[in-house]
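Hey everyone, long-time lurker, first post.

I ran two proteins through the pipeline my lab uses and got sequence/structure pairs for each. Pasting them in order. The first:
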Amino acid sequence: MFKVKLRPVKARSVTDESGVSSLALAGNESEFNTDILKGDPIGRRDIGLNVPLPAQPEAFKKVVTEKVEQFKKNGVAMTIDVWKDQQSGLTYIMDGQHRFIAAAVLGMPVNLNWKKLGIRPSQVDWGGTKYIEGVPAKDKIKQKN
């Protein structure tokens, strides 16, 4: 059997395109408190790189609204899957981008489920994200059944 030696994860500084340096997520936090974002992160360039970054350049406003209402109804903290790119030091959302946005709208913490492997997305920050109209894939699947 192989023994895997885990190196301790240490936070490191990341620098955004404007040259502002901030402390990146270490890769072992159990939650992220979105209240520091002070609202919806979509399209904002003032957030920096020390937050879980989007994996997709767009989001559905309808889905975010559903997630906000879902949280208000049951009060259960949302969980997202994240992955830390060891080369860049950046953390990306692998699954749960709409839940993260909803939590930010509410100023609530999200639970972080760290994945060991991931793929670096083309999206680099929240400033390049936008809301789009259309039907989410999950709704298209429901319509076919």
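...and the second, right after it:
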Amino acid sequence: MTHRDVAPVTPEAERAGTTPARAPLDVLRSHLDTHLEATARVWFHRALAEAAAHPGTHGPISVWELRLAEAGRRCGSRYADAARVLILHAARADPESLARVYFQGTAEERRAVLHALPHLVSGPEALPLVEDALRTHDTRLLAAAVGPYAARHLDAHAWRHAVLKCLFTGVPVAEVAGLEQRARADAELARMLGDYAAERTSAGRPVPGDLRRVQILADPTAPPSTDPGAAAPDRHRTDLSGPGSSHRRPARPHGKES
């Protein structure tokens, strides 16, 4: 696989935002220490200690993998993503371990792995996980897949299609890390957006409001949308406590919720 034409993304741009992928790990830890109830906080600290003491793979399943599965029940869905990311970091999970958790886990565990990638993997080794998530129609997985790791490592062709996939499925483009840097003056992306807008208009369907935002970045000279049914921009803001509440609840093709 080649990865040409990847636009540089500044660390500041990567980390802007509050999802577990973008927030510094010490901020995630502090957030959980502040907001978890006492019993959940004790469990969380024990899970981190176990992961740090027994990193890597031990037998058919490691203790920290069991804790990943428990996180939703122990911490609640609001805080499970951040807890899982911190457990994965404490376990020093390598790309092989991350792939095993991703492909064997529930949709929630998959999402946590995607959020953990920029904290754990410096190179493109984990791109197959991002590419798999981008093939789904689970909007929460899609939102996690277009985080800082994708901004750094997806090639131009795949990244453009990821942006279009967000528009197709209603994932707010605010979820796309590095959007302003990578979309700026991208003539091919502007063409793709124009084609998509024309298809929607011809079919009598509204053009997503987010499309215009990306279109302006890709081609500042593009004429304003004349579609009277254009949807208003989604003001969704992500939250490190869990998946955004404004996302519609998708099907879970990869397993039951934990």
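Reply from user beta_strand_b:
Welcome! Quick read of the second one: The chain has two domains: 15-121, 124-231. The mean pLDDT is 82.
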